[in-house]
């Protein structure tokens, strides 16, 4: 279904957003994450995947978001689960991008451990502020992003802000770089997860203004008033 930006839900009240996004106290500790029978180590500062991330992991592994034989970018690599899922699926190239060096390092470790060398698959773990480290001329068939777009600052800890609440400006800059550098293949698609804890209308509206077509691929209503969307964004047909 094509998106009508004005019909997207408004941002939830600030106090409600802050209450449901209170950071856990373990971000600066060593933690573990289990998924699909695989174990992932989370060094201090590396994001622990939540419910929306687990949805994304499943869609990548089962091909609902198809990466097999395609050039794929996992924006915000985190612990590397998306990269591993794409590798197991048989992506042609995988770019695991994150501004956080420790996240990129542990992503590379997990990819080696759970996927390893595969004929026909190239893996590129890059420390990158959005697409800064991506070589010119790269074209992506698939990009996924579960951005830290929460609209309220829920902590003064820089790692919490980086993982949760940078806000809409990061996502609009993401779309600007994608379009200005012509990084999306002609038939490529960007899959982005955003909820009404963020400014949905600004985020999606900016993508539309930059010439992308937005569709709702999935919607999930939680029991706390949060509505999460998986948007699929493509180029406009010529």
Overview of the structural elements:
By secondary structure, this protein is α/β, with parallel strands linked by helices. The chain contains 7 helices and 9 strands. The chain has a 7-stranded mixed sheet, with helices on both faces. It has a two-stranded antiparallel sheet with strand order 1-2. Helix 3 runs parallel beside helix 4 and helix 6 runs parallel beside helix 7. The longest helix is centred in the middle third of the chain and has 14 residues, at 101-114. The radius of gyration is 17 Å and the shape is globular. The mean pLDDT is 95.
> Rg to the nearest angstrom?
17 Å
Low-pLDDT sequence parts: none
Quantity of strands, as a count: 9
H/E topology pattern: HEEHEHEHEEHHEHEE
User: Any idea what the CATH superfamily is called?
Assistant: Vaccinia Virus protein VP39
Helix content: 25-40%
Q: Which architecture name does CATH use?
A: 3-Layer(aba) Sandwich
Domain count: the total is: 1
Sequence of strands across the biggest β-sheet: 5-4-3-6-7-9-8
CATH class: Alpha Beta
Averaging pLDDT over every residue, what do you get?
Answer: 95
**Percent of residues in beta strands?**
25-35%
Calculate the terminal CA-CA distance, rounded to whole Å: 20 Å
Helix count, per DSSP? 7
What can be said about the biggest beta sheet?
7 strands, mixed
Shape: globular
CATH topology: Rossmann fold
The secondary-structure class comes to alpha/beta
């Amino acid at each position: 279904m094509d998106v009508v930006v004005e019909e997207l839900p408004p941002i939830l009240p600030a106090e409600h957003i802050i209450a449901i996004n209170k950071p856990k106290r373990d971000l600066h500790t060593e933690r573990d994450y289990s998924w699909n029978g695989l174990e992932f180590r989370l060094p201090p500062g590396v994001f622990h995947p939540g419910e929306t991330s687990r949805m994304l992991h499943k869609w990548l592994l089962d091909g609902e978001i198809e990466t097999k034989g395609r050039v794929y970018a996992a924006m915000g690599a985190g612990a590397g689960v998306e990269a591993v899922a794409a590798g197991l699926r048989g992506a042609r190239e995988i770019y695991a991008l994150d501004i956080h060096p420790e996240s990129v390092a542990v992503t590379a470790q997990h990819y080696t451990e759970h996927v390893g060398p595969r004929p026909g698959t190239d893996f590129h773990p890059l420390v990158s502020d959005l697409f800064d480290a991506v070589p010119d001329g790269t074209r992506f068939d698939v990009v996924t992003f579960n951005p830290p777009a929460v609209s309220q600052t829920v902590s003064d800890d820089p790692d919490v802000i980086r993982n949760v609440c940078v806000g809409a400006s990061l996502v609009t800059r993401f779309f600007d770089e994608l379009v200005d550098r012509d990084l999306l293949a002609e038939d490529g698609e960007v899959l982005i997860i955003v909820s009404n804890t963020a400014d949905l209308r600004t985020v999606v509206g900016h993508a539309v203004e930059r010439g992308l077509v937005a569709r709702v691929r999935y919607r999930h209503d939680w029991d706390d008033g949060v509505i999460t969307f998986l948007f699929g964004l493509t180029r406009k047909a010529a």
